[in-house]
Amino acid sequence: MGDDVILQYRFNEKTGTVTPKQPSAVHVKKDAGPRQLVFDPNGHDVFGVNELDGTVNRYQLNDSGLLKLVFSYSVVQAVRMTLLEVLHFQRSIT
Question: Which pLDDT does position 3 carry in this prediction?
């Protein structure tokens, strides 16, 4: 944490070595705090959780194994909206 980047490396199965890809990093929003990546079984989508700003990023993984940001979704905003909807619904039935 601290640099707000996801580093990209190529893994050589024969030698067990890793080398940086070009570009070597994918930058995320400042102070987002990228934490975990999950690879979709389809082999093309990657989801990243940013722990500091409460967002989830979706990336496309191209044939060269490089990530491209598709969108960023605010989990915090979604929870706020859900809570507001619940409060609005409760007020409408009372």
Answer: 86
Report the alpha-carbon distance of residue 57 to residue 28 in Å, rounded.
9
Give the β-pairing of 55-61 and 67-74.
Answer: antiparallel
The residue written with tokens 């491209």 in the block is: 68
The ranges assigned to domains in the chain are: 5-93
Q: Give the rounded distance of the alpha carbon of 83 from its chain centre.
A: 24
Work out whether strand 67-74 and strand 5-11 pair parallel, antiparallel, or are unpaired. unpaired
* Residue 67: Cβ within 10 Å count: 19
10-residue averages of pLDDT along the chain (94 residues) = 88 96 94 94 93 94 94 80 64 57
Question: What sign for the dihedral angle of Cα 38, 35, 67, 17?
Answer: negative
